Amino acid sequence: MEQSERDGLDVERIREDFPILQREFRGEQVAYLDNAATSQTPDQVVDAIAHYYRHTNANVHRGLHHLSQEASVAYEEAHDRVAEFIGAEGREEVVFGKNTTEAINTVAYAWGLAELGPGDEVVLTEMDHHATLVTWQQIAKKTGADVKFARVDDEGYLDLDHLRELVTDDTELVGVPHVSNTLGTIAPVEEIGEIAHDHGALYFVDGAQSVPHMPVDVQAMDADFFAFSGHKMCGPTGIGVLYGKEHLLEEMQPYLYGGMMIEKVTFEDSTWHELPWKFEAGTPPIAQGIALAEACDYLDDIGMERVQRHGERLAEYAHDRLSEFDDITILGPPADDRAALVSFNLDDVHAHDASEILNDYAVAVRAGDHCTQPLHDKLGVPASTRASFYVYNTKEEVDKLVAALDDARQLFA
Ligand code: C6P
């Protein structure tokens, strides 16, 4: 048996779970290559949401009635399932919120605002998403701390020597994106964790682009905090996860106050509920959390190693095919060393124009700065076009992208 058959995915079978992939535009079946922005949602996850609303819907942790108890158990068990998916020790370490952005802001406001001051440093990277970059920039303004950025080298890799230079005993937090949403670079997260901890800094990993695409073990990388979103991993929108080591979350004060997160309230003062509820103020994303657990089951049924291989092979194939053209510049590392996405520019054609033409051919890609404006500035381009892949994408869809680009080139010639 060929290796690709043995460890490949049954993509045709998987596609049956995603009716949206049958959508047509101008008589052409849509090639959905915008998965880094948001992935499609399989029937199993849609059914889990519908089932919840049809049979269980109630507020959690409030009612003593049967439905509320059932919803509470399902919601709590969803935390257990997500903990298992990322290698956390238990539900205490898994805080549900709206998305990766909210998870990052929770660390920034609940830990950063309280702990940072003048003379302290936060070390990030040039390939960080605005969700990290802007948030810590603002916290630095409020606290007087400094933010420094480890360089990305000419090949699109993180310059680890530079990162080592930047991390000192004044560094309080090191933050990296596990996978760059623009370059497709995979950061050596275990090594960076050691650098951070050698200097007594906390370690934050943005897993928005890794959890959907590869096996992730937060304990193996020794992350103190780790964030990701449900909507990029076959789950619904409106759910994101903050993982935090239990002792850190215990020590931190919440930054959102209200119902659900309290233990005892008097007119004078309040005490907080146990983890993770202390950080989940108000009515939480109940249906979304339960559906995220279903998405974890869906991906585990396929197998995360296979998910990873499939995405990376498609990215390699796309990289190779796009490299055939002299007037296409690809951002980021070589074909065989990148995550499941490829960003590129076609000479003299703005990324927005390229993506509009691709849309005419029913190829859905993202164009813009992908919320990494400083990185694009550094690369000397205002924007890029990005094709990003998932379990249901095929080589034929990559061919369609390349053929459409070829036509676009003629149009602009
Ligand atoms: N990147 C993209 O098209 P939210 O929006 O909170 O779910 O995720 C934010 C985020 C944080 N970190 C990384 C590395 C990301 O890629 C994203 C989301 C999308 O690339 C939307 S800009």
Describe this structure in words.
By secondary structure, the chain is an alpha/beta fold. It has two domains: 3-32 and 303-411, Alpha-Beta Complex (Aspartate Aminotransferase, domain 1), CATH 3.90.1150.10; 46-300, Aspartate Aminotransferase, domain 2 (3-Layer(aba) Sandwich), CATH 3.40.640. It has 14 helices and 17 strands. The chain has helices at 3-7, 11-15, 43-56, 66-86, 100-115, 130-143, 160-166, 189-198, 246-251, 286-302, 304-322, 351-360, 373-379, 395-412; strands at 24-25, 28-29, 31-32, 94-97, 121-125, 146-150, 171-177, 202-206, 225-229, 240-244, 262-265, 270-272, 328-331, 341-346, 363-364, 366-368, 384-388. Strands 4-10-9-8-7-5-6 form a seven-stranded mixed beta sheet, sandwiched between helices. A four-stranded antiparallel beta sheet has the order 13-14-17-16, covered by helices on one side. The protein has a two-stranded antiparallel ribbon with strand order 1-2. A hairpin with a 2-residue loop joins strand 1 (24-25) and strand 2. Helix 4 packs across helix 10 (286-302), helix 5 (100-115) runs parallel beside helix 6 and helix 11 (304-322) runs parallel beside helix 14 (395-412). Mean pLDDT is 96; it is low at 1-6. The structure holds ligand C6P. Residues 36-37, 99-101, 129, 131, 177, 181, 206, 208-209, 229, 240, 366, 370-371 line the site of ligand C6P.
